[in-house]
Amino acid sequence: MSVPAFPESAADRGGDFGGVVPVTGMARLAGVCDGLIVDQWGVLHDGTHAYPGAVACLERLRAAGKRIVVLSNSGKREAENVRLLARMGFDATLFDRVISAGENTRHAIQARADAFHRSLGRRCFAFTRDKDRSLLENIGLELVERVEDADFVAVIGIDSPRRGLPDYEPELRAAATRRLPMICANPDIVRVAAEGTIDAPGALARRYEALGGNVFYHGKPYPAIYASCLEALDRCAPRRVLAIGDSIEHDVLGATRAGIRSVFVAGGIHAGDLDITRGELPAPAAWRKFAAAAIASPDYLLPAFIW
Q1: Where residue 223 falls among pLDDT bands split at 50, 70, 90?
Q2: Rounded Cα–Cα distance for residues 285 and 16 (Å)
Q3: Which CATH number fits domain 112-217: 3.40.50.1820, 3.40.50.150, 3.40.50.1000, 3.40.50.460?
Q4: Taking the CB of residue 102, how many other CB atoms lie within 10 A of it?
Q5: How large a percentage of the chain has pLDDT more than 70?
Q6: Which end of the chain is less packed: N or C, by CB atoms within 10 Å?
Q7: 221 preceded by cis ω (within 30°)?
Q8: How far apart are CA 261 and CA 238, in angstroms?
Q9: 209 near 155, Cβ under 8 Å?
Q10: Cα-trace Rg, the chain
């Protein structure tokens, strides 16, 4: 099946997959985009190793003249994400920018341009991974060690799998009792790791909301971060941009809200739901069942980020 140029009609789409076009690799899509917004975990790597074919796919896309932004809900800053990618074989020449929810959070706390961020105060208790609070350093905050001493709480990491969500309950309840506002620098609920899917920082924020807490989220699927991506793509027309990710709730929904077409990597965090492994496309019936309950629908299905 050939992949239609933008814009395609509903009749051009693959009916077996309920209106979503399945493709075997990015070579089938290179002709219909000028820029790409590419997720990290679950698409390019598992946090430790690059997925087979991912580096080569970026190389082919760059050779074809595509502008590429890596968009991550990582709570870390851009330079740290660039170093992480480099350690796994992704040279910095393979993309134009790495835009992270963490960087977006840091800028918002500094700027305090809206009522929520102006209300935060200066004393912050941070949920972190490996006690790394560098995202919040040198921006005028006092980083405190106890929830009881904080004006607000920030989620910038989670120590999963060493600590599970129930281990954080006392701290979350203490913050909720004091009605402290929370800022979340990574909305991901789960992430792909070498050992499988594990809790991501957004799980803490979701639990805090369930306890009655007020949370402000930075990153996918919220529109502001996509505006940053389009700016970094040298203002490519949104209709000539593809967003590639493995999360319906973050990558696909975020792209949809931003008016950008999406490519869903089926063998990522939803592989178990689709009864497949990485590198496979789901059966049409399995996809239709999954899609019927999904919050958003992609334009294309991809087994893995390969050429």
Answers
A1: confident
A2: 8
A3: 3.40.50.1000
A4: 27
A5: 94
A6: N
A7: yes
A8: 8
A9: no
A10: 19
